[in-house]
Amino acid sequence: MMMMIRRARTWAGTAHLSDVMIERALLFAALSAVSTLALITLFIMREGLPVLLDRGPLAFLGGVRWAPSRGEFGLLPMIAGTAVVTVGALAIGLPLGLAGAITLAELAPRRARQLLKPTIELLAGIPSVVYGFIGMEFLVPLIRTGGPLGGPGYSALAASIILGIMVLPTIIGISIDALEAVPQGYRDGSRALGATHWQTITGVVLPAARNGIVAAVILGMGRAVGETMAVIMVAGNAVQFPTSILAPVRTLTANIALEMSYATGAHAQALFATGIVLFVISLSLNAMAGFVRGTHRSADA
Amino acid sequence: MATPVAVRYLVALALVVGCSTADAHTPETGVITLAGSTSIQPFAERWAEEYPAGRVIVQSGGSTAGIKAAHDGTAEIGMASRALVASEIAGLVQTVVARDGIAVIAHAGNPVQGLSLRQLRGIYAGDITNWREVGGRDLRITVITREDGSGTRDAFEQFVMGDAHTIATSALVTAYSGGLRKMVSQDPGAIGYVTFSQLNAQVRPLAIDGVEPSELAIASGRYRLQRPFVFLTRGAPRGAARAFIDFVLSDPGQQLARREGLAPVTVQ
Fold this sequence. Notes:
The structure holds two protein chains of two kinds. Chain A has helices at residues 2-14, 17-55, 57-62, 76-107, 110-123, 128-145, 156-166, 168-180, 184-192, 197-208, 210-226, 229-235, 252-259, 265-300, and strands at 66-67, 72-73. By secondary structure, chain A is mainly alpha-helical. Chain A has a two-stranded antiparallel ribbon. Chain A is globular, with a radius of gyration of 23 Å. Chain A starts with a helix and ends with a helix. By secondary structure, chain B is an alpha/beta fold. Chain B is built from ten helices and eleven strands. Chain B has helices spanning 2-25, 41-50, 63-72, 86-89, 117-125, 151-161, 177-186, 215-220, 239-249, 251-259; strands at 32-36, 56-59, 77-80, 92-107, 114-115, 142-146, 172-174, 190-195, 203-205, 207-208, 226-234. In chain B, the strands form two sheets. In chain B, strands 1, 2, 3, 4, 6, 7, 8, 9 and 11 form a nine-stranded mixed sheet that branches. In chain B, strands 5-10 form a two-stranded parallel sheet. The A-B interface holds A 66-70, 77, 136, 140-141, 144, 150, 152-154, 232-233, 236-240, 247-248, 250, 257-259, 261-264, 267 and B 38, 62, 64-65, 140, 142, 147-151, 154, 166, 169-175, 179, 182-183, 186-187, 190.
């Protein structure tokens, strides 16, 4: 950021007035994005912190009952719900995503790759409500009656499967970048030493791309934690600790979206406080991903 | 669905803006403001559209805000869709303008025709978990409820659960009555509740204590799972507010309420 501003100044010294204007306008656009983030942060803190501090962060984050109309604000069932659904999404999305990334980056012929990669990217363009609707129409009835599983169908399992598919583009996209960043010389050297193609992938390429793949997983987690609409439609949203993967759960995002319409007073503030918890989680995940990728890049250079 | 609401909102906004500028110069008689319950708001807007004798501005904000608005005079008429507590009643005159029934719904193929209030409470409290226990098939009951803060849930809790019982935490939660209806229509073991106007052929309403929900049963009070739609005025309604309430209670006003799925109050 500082670099960019300094460069803009040196350009401005020699450039035409119109260039200066355009640079200023672009800088303004960039700053407005940053200031929006600052404003959002300030706003949710101002709305949510009073109730968080008033009840005590421990009571709020560790409370097991959520019944706003009776003044009970405990977020722990929703934190557990988010955790279960996210872990479930990764359990499905990580093996599929990693296998997909390895196939596309290391094994598939160029033609297949040119077809498959855009298709996977397209997956990210499907609106989440569509995933939710498909989940509600097909997946939920399937879980309820289609096999030995049973239960109401609206469950942690349904949410995990839907989210597992939704995190695929993130995991595959970033993992492919990481695999492609591994210098060709590593592969050549490995093959020259007599390793097979598969041994090269598992023994050399994957370890070298490890940091990037970890970053992909963390960003996939961020996507799963933040997803709202698709989860609301299939998770069942019961405020309880998930006793099995077939039981309904409520995530933090679902909690806000479900109850925002009629919430007033302390209830509305408690929803903003839920937002603070989410904000901290996604910020930490993004920071972690950035850190892991950063060490990867500097190790590369 | 979204467009008419947005259009209505814009119209309301235009009216508010138009009104405030008009007020500053030429105080207009005959313009009245309604504020309060989000449940009553869409019906109040329909009445306002059909009202021939003046302009009516409808704002929402919830029953509590409506009661406050009637008290401090920021609206000529406050709207509340729940019974008022003693401290709220002081100085206000309540006029019941319609009744809204809450229908308990089950899957269309469920052989159970009705439940007692006690059985319904047991199901929602999580004590009764199989339809067999209430005379149905051997099928797990999927309990579905609205979200905390919803007026429909509020009324349901008041009548069915009372102060001593709460809805089990294992109940599925949805924020949309249409979505709830769909969930019930897909699951043979499901039970849920929606306002009377949301009933359709996808689901079957259950009789409660032997009484099927119908406009007549709601209006006569025999179907007890209902809530009043109340207009509140500071003192007896006067002037423009009185004229509007008279219109709402008149035959055309009550017919309109019926067409929109409410139970009228004037049919006794």
